[in-house]
What we know:
There is one protein chain. The chain has strands at residues 14-15, 20-22, 29-38, 41-50, 54-56, 58-67, 71-75, 79-81, 99-102, 110-115, 121-125, 141-144, 153-159, 162-169, 172-180, 183-194, 199-202. The protein is mostly beta strands. The protein has a 5-stranded antiparallel sheet, with no helix packed on it. Strands 5, 12, 15 and 16 form a 4-stranded mixed sheet that branches. Strands 6-14-13-9 form a 4-stranded antiparallel sheet, with no helix packed on it.
Amino acid sequence: MKSSGNPAETYTLQETPGGVLKAGKELPIEISRKSSLQSTGSVEEVTLRAKKTVWFSFEEVIKSDFRHDDCQFYMPGFWYRRNLRSPEQAPSFHTSDSWQVREDRLSTPLTGIFNERTGDFYTVLRTDKQDKECLTTHKVGEVILSEKTSLGYTGFRNVDGRAALVFGFPYSEAPKTYIRKLTLNPSVQTFIKLDEGESMTVT
């Protein structure tokens, strides 16, 4: 969570019975998760409701048991395998082995991790509509959004040698922002406002 003029504060959430996600202290926002199994996987709904006005960014990391070095990664239209054919000024393993991007950089808001050794894989796909965007005065660092957006982010991350899917809302890009051909900017993390009593769900 972030307030104007102050650095963001990060809280690790633990799921309790009933799907409520709680931090180590009382937060001004209630977060809950509902999971439903389907034939092709599971649908995850995260609902956030403000107890008082807040600016927040929500992230989830799904850790696999795959060795990161055994995996190939896919984000449609942006990343294939390890992007090793890309020059160093473009997103690739030359720069980092962990990448997350805003969803409208992809032709479909999906990230896939494929374990070459076992043939197993994980994917995550955002299913909400992407129909709102807002202009910002800043493109890097921690940015408070002045209006609503429907854009989140997705990607993959090396977590202690294991491959993980990462996704969240609103959008964040790391370790670099790819703004145009062969141009990498510093990372950006955005925060969106929820007024007291307002709620939203990310699926």
